[in-house]
Design a protein that fits this description.
The chain is an alpha+beta fold and about 475 residues long. It has 15 helices and eight strands. Helix 3 packs antiparallel against helix 5 (about 195-215) and helix 5 packs across helix 9 (about 270-275).
Length: about 475
């Protein structure tokens, strides 16, 4: 512990908490049990007069800081007092003492190297609330980093500390940042000593990135001038590394595979907010902590509201899902194209169905069509003749009926006297081809014989009686 000395009347120094180029923080105590944190600024004020530029700037900024506590906020440290030390004439700001570790300590062993999603969302909400509260009263913090955000072990809240940089003039701020600032958390414009509301938004994005990935996007290798310049240029020119890839590498080995898989499901709306905060162009970031907090609320509500699938913060999720589905469709289409052509197969429960390949079916249809065409040609050429010849021979009666006596006589059954049946055909029927005429005659004679046998059964008996049976041997 450093030597105890009096900062100002009634405020006792209890030892240094943190020292640096932007000032030192001491643990202070008023008479009694009240413990506070005192921020000493590095630029001395020689006279407490409005003629002194440094004193005038300090007074103006302190007036702004007083507005921060006009409305209490659980995520913003309470500013109790301000003044100038009795020895050294250094300006100081007295703040509420927050008992608990800061984020920088919570990312070191024995703690896990990354925060859980639940804790990241909690901190994102509370830190955005702190920024919104400050920006409403036109106070720019200017020095948001891991060790300026503390976890209050008594309330469970994350609290934004150390408004010392906001109380400095532009020249003081520019000098302090170049030589002693936490350059890993600084926005590109801070390298020129500039500070806007969007500057705090950029540093906010760096903190969320660190909690997700387990490290800042551009780590500082050492505190040398070369390393600081490299980080400064990286913030100005280089693309931010993939935060999810770094998170996968830094997940604790002690976590189960199931927990690792779950902790890789960082909400898309949260990643979108981080991405917008880290834009190098000031105009592309959220305009202030107020707009940042509104975006955070909209993102968290949109993730729970299933009735609004077109929520802006869920656009990336929908696009990725659409790409995945399109990939599946393409995959199935390619597999379908590789499959052989299906064969026509009868259903197994239909016994009357016939299996026929496509090739055989086509040949059968070609032969059937050819046979149909051939039949049509033949019938067109010879159809009329065949029809008239067959009809006349089969169904037309002869002009002279046969003699019944002659039919009943068995002797004259095969004599030439039956020839009158074969009368001459009319002239129009004499053009029938010989083969057709012979066929008709044969059919007609068979019909007449069958009729005679049926009408005169005596014919069969006389034939048997007159048959010569002398040569038969039994």
């Amino acid at each position: 512990m450093s030597k105890v000395f009096t900062i100002t009347e009634g405020l006792e120094n209890m030892g240094a908490l943190r020292t640096g180029g932007q000032g030192s923080v001491y643990k202070g105590r008023r008479y009694g049990p009240i413990i506070t944190a005192v921020k000493l600024l590095p630029t001395p004020i020689h006279t407490e007069s409005t003629d002194d530029k440094n004193f005038r700037n300090f007074q103006n900024e302190v007036e702004k800081l007083k507005k921060v506590n006009e409305e209490p906020n659980p995520n913003v440290v309470k500013i109790l007092n301000s003044g100038i030390t009795e020895s050294g004439s250094f300006p100081f700001i007295e703040m509420e003492f927050i008992d608990g570790p800061d984020l920088e300590d919570l990312l070191k062993p024995p703690h896990e190297p990354v925060f859980t999603i639940k804790e990241i969302i909690k901190l994102a909400d509370q830190l955005a609330n702190a920024l919104s509260h400050c920006h409403k009263v036109s106070v720019k913090h200017g020095d948001i980093k891991s060790n300026n955000v503390k976890f209050n072990v008594h309330t469970g809240n994350y609290v934004l500390l150390d408004f010392g940089l906001s109380a400095m003039s532009d020249d003081q701020r520019r000098t302090s940042i170049r030589h002693a600032g936490a350059i890993e958390f600084m926005a590109p414009e801070q390298n020129e000593g500039l500070m806007y509301f969007q500057t705090d938004v950029y540093s906010y994005g760096i903190i969320l990135y660190e909690l997700i990935a387990g490290r800042v996007p551009f780590p500082l290798k050492d505190n040398g001038e070369t390393a600081r310049t490299a980080v400064m240029l990286a913030h100005m020119e280089l693309e931010v590394p993939d935060v999810m890839e770094l998170r996968r590498k830094n997940l604790p080995q002690s976590w189960t595979d199931e927990k690792k898989e779950m902790e890789m499901m960082v909400p898309a709306w949260l990643l979108q907010i981080v991405n917008k905060c880290l834009q190098k162009d000031v105009s592309n970031r959220f305009a202030s902590g107020i707009e940042l907090q509104e975006a955070l609320v909209q993102g968290s509500i949109g993730a729970l509201n299933t009735s609004r699938p077109d929520e802006a913060w869920n656009t990336d999720v929908l696009l990725k899902e659409n790409e995945r589905l399109q990939g599946l469709v393409l995959y199935y289409q390619e597999n379908e194209a590789k499959q052989p052509a299906p064969t026509i197969v009868a259903a197994p429960d239909d016994p009357k169905s016939v299996r026929m390949s496509k090739t055989v079916f086509i040949m059968f249809m070609i032969l059937l069509c050819g046979f149909t065409v051939f039949s049509a040609v033949v019938m067109d050429k010879f159809g009329g003749r065949i029809y008239h010849g067959v009809v006349n021979r089969l169904f037309k009666p002869s002009k002279k009926k046969p003699d019944s006596a002659r039919i009943s006589s068995p002797v004259q059954s095969d004599t030439p006297q039956q020839k009158p049946i074969e009368n001459k055909l009319p002239e129009e029927e004499q053009t029938i081809p010989p083969e057709v005429d012979s066929t008709a005659d044969s059919i007609l004679r068979n019909i007449q014989r069958a009729k005679q046998r049926h009408d005169n059964p005596q014919f069969y008996r006389d034939s048997v009686n007159k048959a010569d049976t002398s040569n038969l041997n039994f």
